Each structure stands twice: as C-alpha cells, then as structure tokens.
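Reopening closed ticket. The problem is back. First fold of the pair:
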Amino acid sequence: MEVDRKDSEKGRFTLVFLAAPGNVDEARTRHAPLLELTWNWDPETYEGGRNFGHLAFLVDDIYALCQHLHDHGVIINRPPRDGHMAFVRSPDGISIELLQRGDPLPARQPWSSMENTGVW
C-alpha cells in the first residue's frame, strides 16, 4: 500500500514509499519497514542488475550495519560519509540504498573519508 510519494523536479525522479497493509500507520511515522520505489523521469538504459532504479531500506544505525556488511565481505560502494546514506549491491548486481532512520548520525571515521568503490 502506498504511504507516501515525493517528486523531485530538480533530480527528475519520483519516490514512492510502500508498506505492508498491517504496517501502514507505523510506516508513515518511519517506525516500520518501507519499500522505496524510484521512478526516474528520463529514459535510462539499465544494465548490470539495475533493471530498475534501486531498493532502499531504513536502518537504525547505518554505521553499525555497514560495518557488519563489510566484516562479512560486502563491498560498501558508496560509504555513509554523511551519516545518512550508503549503497551496496546484491550478489546479482541490484543497487541497494541504506538510509539512516531519523536524523543523520554525526560523521565518523573511517566512513567519512572513504571513497566510492565501483558503481552504486
């Protein structure tokens, strides 16, 4: 069920947020899992697993999750330098965005100085 929608004229995309029917009220306050669908307004050729925009998940502690993923061999393609957003890719190349729930966390090393790796 759709719980929110945001259009970005500048970025030329629309974000649509979905939640399971039993989680709609909690999802509206960002206390339950959401699925973010991204619609890019301009035509794009998707390849390498990007046969759509990407998936996005809210996480409780972006630094802790990225560290856990990194410790288990997952490449952090776009590190959470800003304490708010990171990207990884699934084994089949799907781009996955990780978003800090609530306000961004304060910048923290080693993340704040890490460069991007590969594509995200």
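Second fold of the pair, where the issue appears:
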Amino acid sequence: MTGAVDLPIWAAVPVALLLLVGAALTLIGSIGLLRLRSFYERVHAPTLGSSLGVGCVLLASMLFFSVLQTRLVVHEVLIGLFVVATTPVTLMLLARAALYRDRQEGSDQVPRRQER
C-alpha cells in the first residue's frame, strides 16, 4: 500500500483497531466452527463471526480510503449489504436442508415437528 504512509495518526489508529476487531471476530467464529459438536451448533458461530468481522473490516476500509482520497468512499456499503443479506439466508438454507435430511433418516437429535 503506497498511500498508507500518508495516513494521519488520527485515522490510522481507528483503522488498525477495526481491522484487529474484525480479524478477532472472524477468528472466534472459526474457532467456534472447530469446537462445537453438532452441525446445528457449528453453523451458527461462523455466521456471526463472518458478518460482524467483515463489517469491521469494511468500516476500516471505508475510513482508510475516505481519508486518503479526501472524499467519502462508500463502495464497501454495497459489499456489506451483500454479506449481511446472503450470510443468514445461506445459514437458513443449510440448516433447513440438514433438518429435512435428519428427519428423513429418523435421527433423534432433531426436534419433532409440531402438529398444527
């Protein structure tokens, strides 16, 4: 990054903190993926980690490039909207497919259907 040297300290500190927080949240989600036992528990942790982690990284990117280019850079908002919209939908589709499969196989680890 050639322009990183020109970044003032008042912007460099929040950018660095946002990047560290984003990386930490993503790491926590990844560790949750490894540590949790069942599929239904595993699918939840990386979803939160990726959404919140990517959000912090995108905020850092917006701040970094807005300060360097002396204009508001909001391209990352579109990326953030796509991540926030697609991650929960993917989680829901994966969980429903696994629930359907487990119910068809007669697994006792899934909740029973409620009669209407």
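Update: turned out to be a display glitch only; the data is intact. The mean pLDDT is 85. Residues 75-105 form the longest helix (31 residues). Please close again.
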